[in-house]
Amino acid sequence: MPEDFADGSWIGLFSGGKDSSWAVYRALERGLSVDRLLTVHPEGDSYMYHVPETRLTALAAESMGIPLVDVEPGDLEAEGVRDSGRQGDDELEPLEVAVATLDDELEGGVTGVTAGAVESEFQTSRIEGMCERLDCDLFAPLWQADPRTLAESMLEAGFEILIVQVAAAGLDESWLGRTYDADALADLEALNEEYGVHLLGEGGEFETLVIDGPHMGRRLDLEYETEWAGTRGRIRVTEASLE
After folding, report:
1. Cβ neighbours for 41, distance < 8 A, ≥ 6 positions apart
2. How far is CA 27 from the centre of its chain?
3. What radius of gyration, in Å, describes the C-alpha atoms of the chain?
């Protein structure tokens, strides 16, 4: 990944979770012009995307003051784009169409996209391929970084992070709605030793939502219920607003 990037419009691939939020935050810190956020709303489980509570990205984007582009579940039937037949590529197609459309609409086109990938070759290789085809850069500041260092950096920066879904051994219902803070990180380190739980939840072991941070003007205020199904669960937001 190049040290310097060209001036122009950047697209933040954005789920509302800590990793994609950190990528956008770091891009803004570097002075990159993040002119749009783009959220894919998958139906059911996804190989490519964060799933729970993606509808809250509209509020998060409003708090950040950056226009949001939604890619809806029906758009996963997009036609007229590359179809390699590999697992997960179908999910990439509507994202690529959306970025290509923005490339046509934004003055000067799309210079690059931000991504919150940490260790997933599956996701990163596909986003890299998309960027090559669209002739734009990729800013992936979390890629292959030390998980604990990343987590500590997020907390030191002032990110307020909520755990919204869990699906791994050692993570019980008490983790739903828990704040991802220094205490949670210490508990996750113990679970990493015992069960191999990743400190950042890489691979969908747990999912998060950033409800406040230095890049946000107003905090998200949520009311929610919890749903638990034996070995996994999630929160279900019933009310959401900006404070």
Report:
1. 54, 55, 70, 71, 72, 73
2. 14
3. 17
| CA 24/CA 31 separation, integer angstroms | 11
> At 19, is the pLDDT very low, low, confident or very high (cuts 50, 70, 90)?
very high
| pLDDT digit string, tens, across residues 202-234 | 878 999 999 999 999 999 999 999 999 989 999
Q: CB burial class (10 A; 0-12, 13-18, 19+) of residue 188?
A: buried
Domains and CATH numbers, the chain: 9-139 (3.40.50.620), 147-242 (3.90.1490.10)
Residue with tokens 């809250």: 56
Q: Which amino acid is at 59?
A: L
Alpha carbon of 189 to those of 160, 183, 194, 207: distances in Å? 19, 10, 9, 16
Question: Are 111 and 139 in contact, with CB atoms under 8 Å apart?
Answer: no
Q: What are phi and psi of 221, to 5 degrees?
A: -110, 120
